[in-house]
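To close the chapter, one final illustration. This time we ask the reader to focus less on the individual chains and more on the assembly as a whole: which components sit near each other, and how the overall shape emerges from the parts.
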Amino acid sequence: MLSITAFIIISIIKSVAVVFVLLTAVAYSVWLERKVSAHIQNRWGPTRVGPFGLLQPMADGVKFIFKEDLTQPHVYKPLYIAAPIIAVVFAITSIAVIPFGNWVNLGPIAKYGPWGTYLQITDLNIGLLVVLGITSMGVYGVALAGWSSNSKYALLGGLRASAQMISYEVSLGLSLVGVVIQSGSLSLREIVDFQGGTFWHFIPRWNVFHGQTLAFFIYLISAYAETNRTPFDLPEAESELVAGYHTEYSAMKFAMFFMAEYANMVTVSCLATLLFLGGWHGPIFGPPIIQALMPVFWFCLKVFFFMFVYVWVRWTLPRFRYDQLMAFGWKFLLPLAVANIVYTALVVALRAS
Amino acid sequence: MFHLILFLFFGLICVAGAVNLLVQSHPINSALSLIVVMASLAVEYLLLGAEFVAAVQVIVYAGAIMVLFLITIMLLNAGKEERTQGSRVAFLLGIPGVLIGGGLIAWTLVTRSNTVSVPIGALLGDPQQIARLLFRDFLLPFEVTSVLILIAIMGAVVLASKPEAVARGPRKDA
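The assembled structure is written out below.
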């Protein structure tokens, strides 16, 4: 077994690595968004900084840091400063329970016997609920930013955001219940383990092919609304609200909202991968060292797929009207999610008896 | 030992948040201190070992109900409250009342309670246990409570809608 020192060292290494990868992914999803949207609109996107504009995120970061950080005289200062911090902290924290790979044996490297670690910062037996809880706290950043800015556009954006996020949180949470009933656990690792293997030797036993197809689409739609992305980006609808809740923010404070949005997208994509697309399961081959890294590769590929779809949808679908958004969430998605729970529960009960 | 220190620390935060809730004059600040109270209560549940209850506490109370409070305050655009001296009757009756009530509760807990105290972290709070309690042992109270809440929601809808709209039935043109 691991000694306490080894445990602490490994945990620190894992945390630093995960946070570094997450922040890099956030920066490069901005690049991805600009590049893909440019190509969809028959433009080039960023090309000047580095090859294919790959250093653009760094240039953006430098720009954000050196811009003047304006604080308007009419804002309520404590909350105006706290709001972007709240948004970004809750967006980044939930990565702590996301597993991104299987058990890795460190014995051959460390030469100290059967050492190893799960590729995950912590495995909680309520991991799924922790992610939901942390994302549900993220709404305060947006709501408080809108209120403390003391401006009409920002207030409307904040109100819209909080109303929309708590409405869609309901169908988001309910769409996951089917998966939880099926796998009989709230631990993200056990949910992924449940999805190993194949049907008839070629269809993977992922939940999306295992009776949860409807839940998958409900989750995807609610997740778009939850992260305030098009077609549900009413909190920052440019044609109506200037920039919504972050109208009054500039420089690094604005960048923090930006980071929070993209970090939330990454989290939601990770959750979709883990719950519906089998996490790190995928074909594994090659020499041992490659075999050890393949699961992480499959996981990242699936997350990348979801990030790409996010951008794709943004430049394909127009924005909803606000009443349409609310009616869609409460009158269509919610009954559908409840029906999915009843169906899954019946199937599981019939199988068990 | 470490658990106990954490437990006391978050208990202190909880009480401080509750006091701050009363002291603050702006409704938004009061609502935010209530969120602090809820979140530190969740940490207390977690430290006691009731992790499912802790997660639900954060998701339901801190994440959903308090957002509704916040929306209401933002929508009404409630400003700062005025400070008054408070009524003399409340002062004269309130403080002895609180003391007597608190004393009674403490006395009952210390002498008359036959619940066994659970060491920190030993509470069986995993989802299976909670589900067994809710859906087997206490099924009837649980269902009755949910019907009660449903009635409360319907009552709120009736009270909030305009009287003529209720009389006419649902709008046809919507």
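The interface with chain A takes residues 28, 32, 35, 51-52, 55-56, 58-59, 62-64, 67-68, 70-71, 74-75, 126-127 of chain B (CB under 8 Å). The mean pLDDT of chain B is 82. With these observations in hand, you are ready for the problems at the end of the chapter.
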